Fold this protein.
Amino acid sequence: MLKAAVLYGKKDIKIEEVNLPANQNNIIIKIVACGICMSDVKAYQEGQSHYFTPPVILGHEYVGTIAKISKKNEDFKKGDRVAVIHAVNCGYCSYCQRGSFELCENKQRASNGGFAEYVSIKEKFAKIALLKIPDKLSTNEATFLEPIACCIEALERCTIRLGDTIVIIGAGVMGLLLLQLGLLSGASKVIVSEINKYRRDIAKSFGAVVVNPRKVNLEKFIMKHTGSEGADLVISTVLKESIIQENFSFTRKQGTLFIFGSAISKPEILFNSNRIHYDQIKIIGTSAYKPFHFNIALKLLKENRISITPLITSVEPLGRIKRALDNYIKPENLKIIIRM
């Protein structure tokens, strides 16, 4: 038996004793830390998710140490500190055959959720689902591998060119990661629109041009910074219809409007189809990542190319997960990590 945070419905999450899947061939990992993702918060607020229905153990940004593994395993051993790729693709469906592993039609969860003392992973998933964490990387830093991998997938789909100007709407955790990765990818300027001063200050420290859209006309500000052309790429991490519609006004001709994230309640958005048609604006989105993006994320963290410490607001024990989920959406909070 182990303690886990089980979601039963809308804002109904309980710490309970649960059983691990009974399989002698499974690898058992003792969870040390698991980051809270906005998708966890949405599932908690709505009582369900695009990916699952309750009861379910949430959490997918987790790191732990191997507590049990077959001695015949040549890749990992007991005591190894590992990050877990929580969803495993099949490798043979039409999307996997195209290399779009994140859209796999037969995707399986590699383990139970990470808001638990232990997770169990099938031995056959070890090579694809486990990634060793080097000693120089802290456990808290390693919980960012999954969100960084998601951001890498997003920017790869955007095909950033050297000298591009990027606009990011919202300086939450993902917006601040996208900012750093955008600059690493060759953008000459990244403009971050954020109403909260604390978050704007962090974005500015990372090299962004920052703006408060409640005090400045955002379209005029961006046009001034782009020679009246508009941005090459606009990434919206804020999923409100009025904001998405405004984003069109400062996306240049043949530019890209990237929708990063999912809406909680109202996903429908009315678009200006003439701008899409006549100005050839592309609208794209993404979710998840490809397995090798974890390896890229690990390299970036090992080489200190991405700053993580300013993004960690607090570390809480598992017993306070309900409070952590309630507090996550407050503007003074960024990443909250649950330690077991």
Notes: The chain has a mean pLDDT of 92. The chain has two domains: 2-144+308-339, 151-285.
